[in-house]
Protein 1
Amino acid sequence: MIDVAVITLFPGFFSGPTGVGVVAKAVQTGAMDLSFINLREYGIGVHRQVDDAPFGGGAGMVLMPGPLADAIESRLDTHKVLLTPAGRPLRQSTLDRLAGYEALTLVCGRYEGVDERFVEEFVDEEVSLGDFVLAGGDAAALAVIEGVARLLPSVLGNPRSLDNESFRDGLLEEPQYTRPAVFRGRSVPEVLVSGDHGRIETWREAQRVERTRERRPDLLA
Ligand code: SAM
């Protein structure tokens, strides 16, 4: 069982997506304990303030270290991950590694980001969903939760479906086809209905290499 907690200003962001599919299954089967810590509850004063203007000037607001520190207090013995565009890009290998922890705490930034002293004091790892800027870390945390959930034993119907998927061997997956054999005049590749498993595997491997070369030459490099 992996224990995952999310520190966020918007716990409601997660209610739909974590109630369906592999995340719901992981929670229902006890493979994942998923909880949310509402940062607002740790805000200061009657207005539960969690952010303030940046020292040195500039646009926007920064999440103050105090409320974040109080919110993470009960999770100090977990692996603490801040979602931020300044982090290392999220890879399948990142998810494989994160799925191996007993307990994760995912910290979602908002506004212009998080006071760096909180990061220095509490954060073990910074992870980015990609080279773009979202309004908050919640979508990135959700990506981590779903990516981890599907790796947990007992969650996927057929664990072998993890074996051949994109990135496992450094390649993108080959194109997939199912019924009908002809759709709007387009037939599935002949080899896939040949029954010749050797030819099928050779074709799939060639497709994986070709797709990766075309779309993601950086993976081959
Ligand atoms: N000022 C920041 C910058 O230029 O890097 C962007 C802050 S962003 C508007 C607010 C929050 O969204 C961030 O603190 C982070 O938690 C989250 N966020 C935005 N883009 C992200 C990404 N690509 N990956 C992970 N988290 C992201």
Protein 2
Amino acid sequence: MKKTCFTILLCFAWGLSSYAQTIQQTLTLREDNVEEILNAMTIEEKVSLLVGGLGSLVPGAAGYTREIERLGIPMTVLADGPAGLRIQPKREGTDQTFYCTGFPTSTLLASSWDPELVETVTTAMGNEVLEYGVDVLLAPGMNLHRNPLCGRNFEYYSEDPLLSGKMAAAYVRGIQKNGVGTSVKHFAANNQETNRLENDARISNRALRELYLKNFEIAIKEGKPWTVMSSYNKLNGEYTQQKHGLLTTVLRDEWGFDGIVMTDWGVKDGTVKSAKAGNDLMEPGRQVEIDRLLAAVNEGTISQEELDRNVRRMLQYIVKTPHFKGYKFSNKPDLKAHAVVARKAAEESIILLRNECNTLPLKGSEKVALYGLTSVDFFGIGTGSGEVNTKHIVNMQEAMTEAGFTLDENLAEFYRTCYATQSATEKMEGSAIDKRHRSEPLISVKAIERQAKDNDVAVVVLGRIAGEGADRAVKDDFELTSIERELLQNISMSYHKAGKKVVVVLNIVGVIETASWKHLVDAIVLPWAPGQEGAHAVADILKGKVNPSGKLPMTFPINYMDMPSSKNFPYYWDMTKGRKGERPNVDYTDYAEGIWVGYRYFQTNNVEVSYPFGYGLSYTTFSYSKPKVKADKDGFVATITVTNTGKVAGREVVELYVATPSGGLEKPSRELKAFAKTKLLAPGESETLTMKVSAYELASFNEEHSAWETAAGTYEVLFGSSVSDIRCTATCKMKARSWEVHDVLGNPKE
Ligand code: GLC
């Protein structure tokens, strides 16, 4: 009898434990049991998934999501930034280093006009994200270049939404090919840094739909990013992180986004409003957000459906991550190989702005007088969360020497000493010099005249740095400093008197004034902030090893105030002016220029610029064939053949603009609707490029009807080497089409 009871007990105990095990097995998150897990979660567990947590797995990472061990839900790791992974390069307790590659910044990538190149760069970048144990790269930054003074423009692409959107989509595809995620940011209208946490961007629906949202729409539809980061600012009176119309109606219902939305690194008091609006994840995450959400669930101010909707999306995100999949990251990405990718990308993107009498390319063996503190203290990337902790940023002295040039050693030593003094000052002061106000050392005319005799050519490197948290200024930033102007004048006078040439290299993070001094010099090369290997790319272009093929992704105006947005940008107003309690361009910014941003304004109104959108020179020349434009069932297909008519191999970007039929809405005289870049064409070689434009892409936004509308009529199709250098045209008839959308974005007048 006893034996029987014992056996029954044993069986019962076994049954219980195997049941428990079974339960345990079903209670572990898998890709195919999200609903089951959701139903098994407690309220506390659900809320904890919506609020970022702390972590130490990857020192230097920006943030984490929380782990729920009971259910096999791992924490995941989120880290910056657009020019490369940003994590701490050194860690306690190990000699191993964790440097990352500093790739070309976004403005330079956009200057390539080559989505395939961008995808190649971010395929390498995404490998570092994976191998250093990060799940989501908080990039690409992609707010429009509304104004040259925005401090974070280097992290962004362009003044044009099509170019910006196509670049961002390619960026996302490359990163996510590695099985890690991206976060397109900052959604939306974060186009200035001044008072970025509270500034209310007041924008018409047409400017929003056609410009400030259009690039995100393209990135979402063609890149399919895992996540979106809402911005800090308000949009038409409401924080974007709390704007249901933006985060749910437009982003999800209209554009089909199926990932998660996270806040930027600061949650407003209205945590519950953010969650209800469709902001799934609150970063960096504090206890107060958990408390607020728990209270809201208990009071019913956030419904079970809303809570489950956000948690479900978090679970669907988590099951995609390398951490969930248990990926064994190596902490040893191939940085050498990635440096090669970074250098090649810079070579393909740098812009040649001026090349009088074929000053460039140089022979490569010249004696070079290399001027400018930036020739030593070279800006690979900008500042803030967009920075990358690289092992080394190659400077112009190193690059020019390695390329075979002979530097004027006295002059080189002078700048190295200036830089060493600057570094010693920083060390003694215990704080970094604010390089936005770094002064250029002056050199006497006597010395310059001697250098003009001793050397074959002068190369002057001018630098500008900026970044997150502050916008740029006009004086001594957008405009040259008096010392820079004097230096250029003296160098120009002395070298031209000696029958020598002057080349300027613009190592800048944003547009500067060029019209007043460009006539002083013979050539201007624009590498922007080209990443850790960018100086090598500059040197290779100067010596003709690489034929430049980059083109401007924005306009260089003659004067700052020529930009339509400048009257409504922080710099223009003294911060204290304006109505009591409300400071224009600080507490709020009226996007009064509407759609008239960049070339849309300059080209339509025939306002002269220093360098137009889409402009860039080559060491060779190209001819364009007669284009063919054929209407198809949805829009048109354009083909054009480009031939290299010069003496060296090169690549050409063909820009396709469209002029819509007159009548109806007031429209820009032409808008970029497609572009394509040839492969490297040998002299005499041709390539036929094909570009497709849909009827939807031809539409303008009609606020009255809350609809995209493609008017019936004859459209002029312009093929250009820049927005103002149109080589040939064609026409195409379109039928009227319209697409209604929700009127949920508020109005600037509210
Ligand atoms: C910053 C930036 C954002 C960055 C985040 C995490 O405030 O606005 O671009 O990804 O915080 O560092």
